[in-house]
Design brief:
The complex is a heterotrimer of chains A (about 325), B (about 375) and C (about 350). Chain A is mainly alpha-helical. Helix content of chain A is about 65%, strand content about 0%. The chains are: A mainly alpha (about 325), B alpha/beta (about 375), C alpha/beta (about 350).
Chain lengths: ~325, ~375, ~350
Amino acid sequence: MSARPAGERIPMSVPLQRPAAPEPPAASPSSVPPARAGAFWRLTLRRLAAQPTTRVAAALLAMIVIGCLVIPWLSPYDYYTPHFDLLSRGPMLAGAHLFGTDPLGRDLLVRVMWGCRISLAVGVAASLVSVLIGVAWGAIAGYVGGWLDSTMMRAVDVLYSVPFVPFVIVLTVLFGRSLWLLFVAIGAVSWLDIARIVRGQTLSLKQREFIEAARVAGVRGVDMISRHIVPNLLGIVAVYATLTIPAVILFEALLSFLGLGVQSPMASLGSLVADGASDMQAHPHLLIVPAALLSLIIYCFNYLGDGLRDALDPRSR
Amino acid sequence: MPDPSAAPEPLLQIRALTVSYPAGAHAGALPAARATARPGARPARAEAHLEVVRGVDLDLAAGEILGIAGESGSGKTQLLLAILGLCGAGARLRGSVRYRGEELLALPAAQLNRTRGARIAMVFQDPATALNPYLTIGRQLTEVLRVHRGVGARAAERRAGAMLEAVHIADAARHLRQYPHELSGGMRQRVTLAMALIAEPQVLLADEPTTSLDVTVQSQILALLRELRERTRVAIVLVTHDMGVIAELADRVAVMYAGTLIEQAPVEALFAGPRHPYSEALQRCVPRLDGPPPQRLASIPGQPPDPAALPPGCAFAPRCAYRLEVCERSAPPLVQAAPRHWKACHYDEPLGRPGPAASAAAAATLAAGEVP
Amino acid sequence: MSANAGHAAAADVAAAAGGAAGAAGARLLRVQGLRVGYEVVHERARAQLVAVRDVAFEVARGQTLGIVGESGSGKSSIARALLRLVPAQAGQAWFLGQDLLQLRGARLQAMRRHLQLVFQDPLGSLDPRMSIAETVAEPLRVFEPQLPDADRARRVLAMLQAVGLSAAHLQRLPHEFSGGQAQRIGIARALIARPQLLLCDEPLSSLDVSIKSQIGNLLKRLQQELHLSMIFISHDLSAVRFACDRLLVLYLGEVVEQADRDSLFGAPRHPYTRALLQAAPIPDPRRARARRRVPLTGEMPSPLAPPSGCVFRTRCPHALERCARERPALRALGASLVACHRAEELDGAGA
């Protein structure tokens, strides 16, 4: 170690300090700032914001979310009261029916915004549930390995083979139509993909040297999974969660289209598309508006998911 | 500055070569920009470009082995890649690289392809990734001949077999039909050498060819390289961080630090009397197996340079035991210190003992780092 | 496994560790008959790959034992077997009064504190999502869970300063550091719980030349300050010459020579040791080119199909017919142990 005489200009690299004794000295620093692992996520956010497509997608989604929260509140119309004098009118400025009205004279703008609320709520909530179940399932199966892994993944395989739509039909017959049933049904099937992916990632993470280092440092079992495995999975989980949301929204739209989802007068984008499709030649706006919004939401989430994947890719660091 | 005593026209002539990448685009080609140890430091994002090779001048004569020594961040690998136009996406190359008088940097891809492999070949550090796992050795060897020399299949096979024998792989016929994963590390590196030399190039660029090999295999490969040079008069540019390998094989040595060529000399002159503090320190860092076992290893204080955060003036100044005032302000030019010996350093006294111009700290560092 | 069992086990280990503390030269680790193998799939059939075959050695307190070998020699497997990261097929490893290879549960956990590892790839051994303060604090979390947060933080800072880093680095993530700095972090993590024995698996191999020396000096200084015993695994002869007191040379899973440092480098007795010393490049062009060298031919055979008798015979310039039949035992020759049938007669040939 080189000693630098006083007055010598300090070089750019920090010189090796006179090493302190292993025991903490009497005058120790008063407080050491707590660990902030959020540094990693701030970095990811910065890289995400650097991509123009992601910025546009995020902005559009933000507008839609704000719109679907604010517009039904601001609008003089609600989504269920019919106005028999304004049936199936196209978009017009009179009466501020910006998207027109539906066959029962209800303002389409408000109904579509309500539809967005339902679709987004179902999408985000069901994805959240599926992520929680999928991560736990996959991480445990992957980390423990052996017969537990085989059993858990065979269960996943079996569930994969269940045809989703008839499954939901059966549930609807047994329990009646409701929004909660929709959550459960969709959540019950969409965790499977994430479980598989998380298990695969866990298997490869297990081989990484820092996991070995943690084992040498005495970490085991649940501690290992929660402190080391799951945080290193979150990146890929975030990507797949963001990509699961549009899949769930689309699935819900399908169910509503088939008449299995929300009950009228409540509307989701899917049911609005279904209603609009049946009348599309006479009144195309009834189909175009909800379909366009549905497509826009799905595009935005897909772009966000792709952008997130790029932002997390270690190779482009 | 070129070496005027290389009488015939040098085979490869590099002048003022500069390679830069847009800051933030470190894909694959660079190590991640690292925060220096300064508290609160962040990697520079405001700079438009990171220069990884800065104004390098080099000559390579036919049949000569030129060693390029340096640590990580020195730009030595980027220098090789730039010669063949293999730098990563977004790289900007300035300067001139002439092969037998022909400018390579400006060449369009199609013509550059004809030079690559056929006249200038390259061997990489990791033989496992240089070979296509899906093709047999024979296919990969003959491919070069068929593409570049238009040789027919049967003749190419015979040449491939002869080449394997030239790199001392016995039972060539059997190995030609094998896949890369069936061979050991040393054999794979021999195969990559065979692939590089089969089209009889005049220049071989070797990027750390023995680093991933065991030491006993390394000495075999080094002996092989020497033999191949004797037989075919191929010129070799050998990039490595291992001074021992340089001492074994090179005729001339160029030392790089932070993208700059800081010393160039015949190998014996460099080891006997280095003129740049970095070369001198590097040699002292390499412990020898003869002499008494050291109590402390000589080291260079500080960290290797970060291309994103280079100091003004000489890049080595922060770590230099012979640092002067002027070193922090201006980067020293490459000047001639002795016949065929060039250095880029402001300090003119001989190294190894503190002269009157050296600061007191230099003496202390020297004393601390001295091997007893 | 109850907390009580954990406490009891920890207390046992602490007693064993404390009792012999300061008795420099006393034996800390004794390994006998170690055998490590892996089940692999080779050419579509299950096969046993024996990485370590009947290895025995001792480490005394305050001493550094070097394990030298090339890739495939099994040196990393020895470390991993001792740390119970991979199972050992046979052998005993007596450490602090217990056989490491038989420990389970709370006893194994308590033992881990005193047997730590510095990894070859410094950046890979750090969790990329954890700040280095958290990483270095982890062993304290595991082995001293009752330590208050403030004390833990102070010890983390003190350890980081001891390895040459500072408070400014605490919240940084691993990717912000260079290889040398990351290795310092790895060393800090390994030493913070004050182990008795530190294993280093190629700790300098992935570092730049100038940084190798810094970290090498750091390890030696810390060893002296903390009265550590070390096992230093490397293929780099100059590194082991600097760091080690005794050396073990491994070839294809077997010990071929064992000696103190000066005997091994001054008068190597096994043909493989001689070949290794000869093959090491000399950073002096005149001497490098002047010396008469016959590089060793061939490469290390695959551990799946080791040669019969002496494992080195396929590359040994002095191999006899006897070498193919009979496996040479490790026997004493002067101050060294050598496994070679012709050790005595070759001794005159010199290095």
